Amino acid sequence: MNSPFANLFLAIQQHIQDNITAINYIDQDLGQLKNDRNTVRPSVTFPCALIDFEDFNFESLAENAQTAKGTIVLRLGFAPFSNSSQSTPTNYIESAISYYDIEWDLHKALHGWSPGTDLGYLTRTSVCTQKRSDTIRVREIRYSLAFEDYSTANTIQQVTVPAAITPQIQIPV
Q1: Interatomic CA distance for residues 44 and 132, integer angstroms
Q2: Cβ burial, residue 50 (10 Å; 0-12/13-18/19+)
Q3: Is the terminal CB of the chain with fewer CB neighbours within 10 Å at N or C?
């Protein structure tokens, strides 16, 4: 793949798959967890991680290169398990809030990790819970990332110039 975003997606997907075995489905975020009352159930396997790239800004460097800075959004989706109120038995509460442990493990795997030699390091910037009208739990974790893009940079070509030949001048004696 040539695109830094394609390589970034594949690297994050593989890193999550290799390090967070509790996550059953990892894909691009194409709106699978959209909060829509008409949707019976999202077409994912829970727990899931959906990856998106938002708000990437570019600044020019010399020679047509650019810096890229933006946000990687991971939406973690969880099917409801049970109530977690104080009157619920402890083992049910622990299962009901186990998604926090999955989120924490994901964070430990991603924060400070570099998806490639030219792609910088991920830094967590925020976490929130999406408010929904259904019972699916969605946690959103945002990471910042900066990298330099030299794909359109001017290249300097070396040209070998043959040595100039100077005619020999004979001076009469």
Answers
A1: 17
A2: buried
A3: C
